[in-house]
Design goal:
Residues 1-128 form the CMP/dCMP-type deaminase domain. InterPro entries: APOBEC/CMP_deaminase_Zn-bd, CMP_dCMP_dom, Cyt/Deoxycyt_deaminase, Cyt_deam_tetra, Cytidine_deaminase-like. The protein is of the alpha+beta class. The protein has four helices and five strands; from the N terminus they run αββαβαββα. The longest helix is centred in the first third of the chain and has 12 residues, at 3-14. 36% of the residues are buried. The protein binds 2'-deoxyuridine and zinc ion. 2'-deoxyuridine binds next to helix 2. The site of zinc ion (ZN) has 6 residues, from helix 3.
């Protein structure tokens, strides 16, 4: 699948966002090796800390269906720069996706910033840091 199509999937995902509090819609589209796309949107809650970002919605959907071979992710929001994922999402992406996987950060103006997982969270805390 080409990147433009993956970005379009993220825009479609964004339409499903449940954002009564922030009114800030975010969409993500996660591509797997076999070409399957998992869409994710942000889902908020009256108990604000329960809000879930689009990126983690997409990843948790995919992982819980048994997917492990992730090859790219696109994220979109109505921001002036390509939308930067929050720290929590960077940590989760870093754990579940390959270090060299590309993340396409975008906005509705068509700006695209391409980063690897390693670039998204350099030196991430990881399983290797746990002494078991
Ligand atoms: O990369 C991002 C940044 C923010 N949000 C969500 C969380 C919350 O619902 C709203 C405002 O922070 O946007 C995402 O889903 N992804
Ligand atoms: Zn996040």
């Amino acid at each position: 699948m080409n990147i433009e199509k993956l970005i379009q999937e993220a825009k479609t995902a964004r339409e499903a966002a449940y954002v009564p509090y922030s009114k800030f819609q975010v969409g993500a589209a996660l591509l797997t090796k076999d070409g399957t796309v998992y869409r994710g949107c942000n889902i908020e809650n009256a108990a604000y800390s329960m809000c879930n970002c689009a990126e983690r919605t997409a990843l948790f959907k995919a992982y819980s269906e048994g997917e492990k071979n992730f090859t790219a992710m696109a994220v979109v929001a109505d921001t002036s720069r390509p939308v930067p994922p929050c720290g929590a999402c960077r940590q989760v992406i870093s754990e579940l996706c390959p270090k060299d996987m590309k993340i396409f950060l975008t906005n509705l103006n068509g700006d695209v910033e391409e980063l690897s997982v390693e670039e998204l969270l350099p030196g991430a805390f990881s399983a290797e840091d746990l002494h078991e």
